[in-house]
């Protein structure tokens, strides 16, 4: 039976995290009162969810009346939205509600993870407050994208893994594998979660190799089964696993600078240049030197090792950050040179890094000899919270009054131009922006050929033949609808003899 003090602490934690969770939900609903921000990838998730709910499988509109299987995106988020749509909540509204709920849950999970790392409720509350006030996380959760669901499943799965490894309970390990497997089903990069879990099982201290191998096989089977079914479906319906090919892309210095710039802007919303990069590297070296000096004494080293190994969670999160970062570089170098290095792609690192920084800082300032630095640490945390608070208030106000991404384009078009609406449903449409065509007009179409491959950045060898086929189809009655087209995009169409039927509000319609 729990003692009175334990019951009181548990009740306090439930109340405080409940307040934080509800505040996060309300904050995100306020920020997205005009609807969630819509990215190009949102069209795949929203369209895929609608198709799933209608029984057409994970697919999108293609051409005037057809559908095309979606293979470039993992289906987990779309499956969740399809479930909500079957319950009566339309996919875009469902994305708004789901990601607002996930923001609340993620704030709580950051606190739970921080408490496990530090064994301190107040450290956990601090972690949740930093998550709640983070402008980066408010922004990430405002988009109709899969990152919030992925972050939640990653946090739950890695936390359960840290519970299962010391106990050795097979049931707990399988539940962890299920959560991480669903994360893998939500984003292809979720393979980093499975890799983290597998490595942690292999290096488990005090376990026989027989135990490690048997548990690794069970963990791998349970965590990869959902994505294996999805990939098999992709191969059967489209002849590809993820619609990506292996092509070498050189990693440049400017590319390596981008993740440092993202991390810099997490704390300081200032321009990041090579001077800031040098400052960051020097600061990192200075911290390493200070830590090395502090650990010069044996008793300090022993305390630090005990602090780091207090729970398996700190090791799990640290390993995951390394594996995810390496996977991002590998993807950029060999599969997709167009992956943006921004808050969205870096958000799976942001959350575990926040847990480790709060947990490590809290534990450090509790260590003997660091008592005199606690006021400075308190001031630093207060400064970060105040900065986050002001930046988040401005962001929420902006999000609540100005739609983002394609949502802004939809608002600008006022529901669509009547001339485009009047194009017969059986007419083939070519466009430079399939997502805008879908979100504004609910139509499917085909991409206008581009001379440069947007993924590999290589010149397309089939560009001229593809453009000739487009022009031939336009001669047969197809039309071209261009959104916010640059002169360079319009020039080959005008040169080929197409005439402009409509040019208004950033929309240009061309035909013979």
Q: Any descriptors?
A:
single chain; two-stranded antiparallel ribbon; 21 helices; mainly alpha; 7 strands; 512 residues
Amino-to-carboxy terminus distance:
82 Å
* Number of DSSP strand runs: 7
Tally of helical segments: 21
Please give the radius of gyration in angstroms.
25 Å
- Which outline best applies? globular
Low-confidence stretches: none
β content, as a range? 5-15%
Overall tally of structural domains: 2
Strand order of the largest sheet: 4-3-5-7-6
- Decide which structural class fits the backbone: mainly alpha
Oligomer: single chain
Helicity, in percent?
55-70%
| Element-by-element helix/strand order | HHEEHHHHHHHHHHHHHHHHEHEHEHEE
pLDDT average, as an integer?
A: 87
Largest sheet: 5 strands, mixed
């Amino acid at each position: 039976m729990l003692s009175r003090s334990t019951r009181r602490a548990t009740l306090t934690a439930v109340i405080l995290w409940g307040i934080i969770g509800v505040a996060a939900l309300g904050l995100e609903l306020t920020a997205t009162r005009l609807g969630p921000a819509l990215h190009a990838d949102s069209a795949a998730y929203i369209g895929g969810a609608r198709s799933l709910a209608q029984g057409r499988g994970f697919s999108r509109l293609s051409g005037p009346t057809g559908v095309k299987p979606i293979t470039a995106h993992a289906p987990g988020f779309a499956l969740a939205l399809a479930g909500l749509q079957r319950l009566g909540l339309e996919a875009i509204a469902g994305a708004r509600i789901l990601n607002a709920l996930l923001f609340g849950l993620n704030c709580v999970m950051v606190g739970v993870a921080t408490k496990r790392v530090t064994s301190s409720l107040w450290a956990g509350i601090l972690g949740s407050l930093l998550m709640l006030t983070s402008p980066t996380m408010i922004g990430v959760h405002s988009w109709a994208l899969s990152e919030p669901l992925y972050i939640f499943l990653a946090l739950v799965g890695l936390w359960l893994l840290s519970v299962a490894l010391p106990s050795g309970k097979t049931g707990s390990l399988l539940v962890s594998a299920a959560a991480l497997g669903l994360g893998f089903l939500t984003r292809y990069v979720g393979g980093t979660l499975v890799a983290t879990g597998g490595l942690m099982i292999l290096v488990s201290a005090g376990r026989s190799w027989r135990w490690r191998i048997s548990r690794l096989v069970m963990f791998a089977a349970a965590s990869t089964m959902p994505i294996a079914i999805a990939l098999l479906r992709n191969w059967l319906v489209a002849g590809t696993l993820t619609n990506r090919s292996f092509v070498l892309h050189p990693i440049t210095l400017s590319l390596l600078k981008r993740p440092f710039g993202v991390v810099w802007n997490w704390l300081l919303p200032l321009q990041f240049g090579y001077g800031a990069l040098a400052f960051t590297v020097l600061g990192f070296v200075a911290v390493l030197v200070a830590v090395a000096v502090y650990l010069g004494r044996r008793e300090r080293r022993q305390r630090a090792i005990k602090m780091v190994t207090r729970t398996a969670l700190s090791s799990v999160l640290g390993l995951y950050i390394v594996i995810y970062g390496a996977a991002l570089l590998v993807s950029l170098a060999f599969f997709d040179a167009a992956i943006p290095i921004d808050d969205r792609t870096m958000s799976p690192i942001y959350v575990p890094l926040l847990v480790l920084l709060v947990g490590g800082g809290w534990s450090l300032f509790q260590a003997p000899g660091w008592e005199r630095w606690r006021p400075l640490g308190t001031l630093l945390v207060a400064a970060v919270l105040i900065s986050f608070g002001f930046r988040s208030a401005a962001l929420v106000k902006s999000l609540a009054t100005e739609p983002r991404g394609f949502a802004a384009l939809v608002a600008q078009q006022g529901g669509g131009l009547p001339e485009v609406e009047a194009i017969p449903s059986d007419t083939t449409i070519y466009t430079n922006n399939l997502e805008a065509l879908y979100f504004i007009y609910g139509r499917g179409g085909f991409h206008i050929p581009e001379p440069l491959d947007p993924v590999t950045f290589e010149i397309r060898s089939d560009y001229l033949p593809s453009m000739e086929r487009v022009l031939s189809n336009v001669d047969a009655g197809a039309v071209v609808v261009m959104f916010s087209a640059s002169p360079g995009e319009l020039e080959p169409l005008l040169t080929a003899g197409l005439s402009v039927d409509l040019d208004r509000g950033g929309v240009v319609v061309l035909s013979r």
